[in-house]
Structure formats: structure tokens, C-alpha cells
Design brief:
With 178 residues, this protein is α+β, with helices and mostly antiparallel strands. The mean pLDDT is 96.
């Protein structure tokens, strides 16, 4: 259990802290970690079965990545509200059906960020509302092509891999069961 928390850096999106804790033999250890408010990722499926992905320039890796739409929770905001907001901002789509599929931690060795995966259906197109500095381009692919992008290593973003592979596995299991 954590015994002491020391704030090292406060930013607009996360804090960096030093955590002190005891192990089973009573030894005290410290680790640095990033505390994050949590985020959502959305799997938007169009009526014809295509998935809406985005090309997103990520300054941290200085690359444009293929991803599912996603975003950080605002203070006091429910994950489902974040999902609807981010879907519209990044793709222009509004969804009549947004349902939670899974939760996972992005990189729990150094980061507290809890990611919630949502499925979005009943999509109505509209205009994107990107935030300043966002370089995002939505595009659509057939489900088989999305899986081919995964298999070829063209999707390297963890949340997108989890979302696509989780849903693919779920769909295969549902077909097998009947």
C-alpha cells in the first residue's frame, strides 16, 4: 500500500508523483508515476460494417498514427459523456447508441490512466470540432481491412489494438455460440 505521495510535476493533463510503499518484508521502496484522470476510446461502426479510424499526429512520438478516436475525461465527467463528446469532436459523428465494452490500464508500470472502451453505433455524420493543435483525419475501412492493418503492424497504438482485437474476439465468440 502507498504510504507517501510527493508531487514532482503538475501539468494540465497529468501529475508526476513519487510514491513510497512497503513490500512484504517491510522494506520501503519508491517509484515515480504519472497520475492521469482517465480516458476513453471509441470504436465507431457504421451501418455497413465499416469502422471509422483516425490518422492522428502524436507529438510525443513525432508520428502520425492510425487510431480509434479517444480523449481524456474532464473533471466530474462520466466516461460515456466523454466518449460521445470525443467521437463528435474527432470524427464528426454523433451516435444514437454508445455502450461500454471494457476497461483496461494503458501502462500500469508508470501510468495510472484507466481507459474505457466504448462501441458507437447509429452514427450520423457531421463536422469535426478539433481542439487547437490536433491534426486528425478520420477515414473509413472495412472490418477485414482494419484487421489487416493490425496484422501488418500499421496500427501501433495500444488502445486501438485493444479495442479492435477485443471487439473482433467478441464478435467471433458470439458467432460461434450461435
Amino acid at each position: 500500500m502507498i504510504e507517501k505521495t510527493e508531487l514532482l510535476l503538475k501539468t494540465g493533463r497529468f501529475d508526476v508523483v513519487r510514491l513510497s510503499y512497503r513490500d512484504a518484508d517491510g522494506s520501503v521502496h519508491t517509484r515515480e508515476a504519472a497520475r492521469h484522470p482517465g480516458a476513453v476510446t471509441i470504436l465507431p461502426i457504421l451501418e455497413d460494417g465499416r469502422v471509422c479510424l483516425i490518422r492522428n499526429y502524436r507529438v510525443a512520438v513525432d508520428q502520425t498514427l492510425i487510431e480509434l478516436p479517444a480523449g481524456t475525461l474532464e473533471p466530474g465527467e462520466a466516461p460515456s459523456v466523454t466518449a460521445a463528446r470525443e467521437l463528435e469532436e474527432e470524427t464528426g459523428y454523433r451516435a444514437s447508441d454508445v455502450r461500454q465494452l471494457a476497461e483496461f490500464f494503458m501502462s500500469p508500470g508508470i501510468l495510472s490512466e484507466r481507459m474505457v472502451l466504448f462501441l458507437a453505433r447509429g452514427l450520423t455524420p457531421g463536422a469535426t470540432r478539433l481542439e487547437g493543435g490536433e491534426l486528425i483525419e478520420p477515414f473509413h475501412v472495412a472490418w477485414d481491412e482494419a484487421m489487416a492493418l493490425v496484422e501488418r503492424g500499421e496500427i501501433r497504438d495500444a488502445k486501438s489494438l485493444v479495442g479492435l482485437l477485443w471487439y473482433d474476439r467478441h464478435q467471433r465468440r458470439m458467432k460461434a455460440e450461435g
